[in-house]
Amino acid sequence: MKIKIMKSFKYLFFFLVFNLGISHASVLDQKINSGMDAAYNFNFNKASKIFQQVAHNYPKKPEGYHYLSMLYLWYYLGSKSEIEYSSFVRYSDIALDLAKRDLDANENSDNANYILAQIYTLRAMANAKKQNSFEAFWATKKAVDFYKTTLKINPKYYDAYYGLGLFKYTLSFVPSLFNWALKVTGLSGDKIEGLRLLKKSFKYGKTTKVESAYHLSRIYVDFIADYDSSEAYLSPISSKYPRNIIFNYQHALLNLNRRELNKADNYLDKILSLRDSKFVQTNSFAFFLKGEIEFRNNNFAKANEFYDKFLTTTKDFDYSGIAYFNMAVCSFAMENPEEGKKQLLLARNGNDDIPDDNYAKRRSAILFENGISQHQLKIFIANNYLLSGNYSKSISLLKPIIDSLNESDQKGEALLILSDALLNVGRIREALNYSIQGAKLEIKNEKWIYPNILFISAKAHKYAGKWKDSRQILLEAERNNDSDFKDKLTPKINYLKKQLKIIL
Fold this sequence. Notes:
504 residues; mainly alpha; Serine Threonine Protein Phosphatase 5, Tetratricopeptide repeat; 3 domains; 26 helices; 73% helix; globular
């Protein structure tokens, strides 16, 4: 059964890419630990040799085959090569058969249950990536059941909390379209509970500390926008395993969210310098992020170069819409409207399940029809200054034109950028006034402006010491956060709710 999975579920199991918990079989610990240490640092030749040796020395045990399957799944996720996927299935099938035999021999073995949980976790992830939704849910159910059985047998098997925590967190993103699957399988999601279980695994687990740290770092960015906590989890593992492309990529994303573009760029350069042939799609996304950095720095020619590298190397349509849209803005800024119009047309061909691409598709049609005016171009440039931390330049560009903007969407977008920039330089009263002004506008097309400007207004009220008003405005922002960039605003709302002592 193959169903197209929406964005929030399609990437659900990306969180599980480092499901590397090591079994507690003491005889195998040393070899497995050595192999995983090599894998963490992306020394795959060494890791593969170690796991092959484990499989050779212990042909009736599932561990060697399981960890070999894990490597091939990584390769598939990083390259989308069907050859790598076939190798994953082959080794996973062998591991599953051997693990079932171990369980038949001793159904009360915590280790036998745990290795089965791991095997099904990887199979869930593979099926989700393949968009085999029904198979993904059933593999998830089996994994969760085996994790729970592991803990029932041995409540101190803390590494099992890692798997349970990840599933609890990621299943909370399943859209209503798949509620039937949750009901049939008895699964449920809970972000707060997932976060709690991951923290437990990080604190007490024996073999899942690295994976727990990585996922906690992701969650603190994607769910709470607590960038300092994210850094605290990510930096130690990133320093210990400097060749790990995924850790470097997460560090780049973290610094983009912090608006520290130079730091983000350094991590992306590191990824591209490693030139790992097993992770060509990750390399492609690194080109996309470098394009984003140059775009935010208003280096339009360089931005287009990197976006073009991304578009010529990517193996799917994800983020191609927003890449073409930004390229169009660059072309208009460089006074090449003919090229810009071509790119606006191409911006409609992204992945509709990606919010950025959906935004690009809708807005490119409007701009293609009406063109990009000089005022609109200034708004785009001012937003780039904002996202690069150049708040004074953003303010200087928008303040002279703000009163001359008559179209409500255009004015709302400008007021949002201006109030955000003013807030970041401590001009709280002005930020308050502009955000309140923007919240009163009747937005026609760009519905994402309203909740975002309410959020800035809530922050401004908090900084002004008006906590009661801030809470009310923030909850209003949350109620209206159901349009483009919802996923980007939600963690910021959660972080401010935490500061205002509102229960998440």
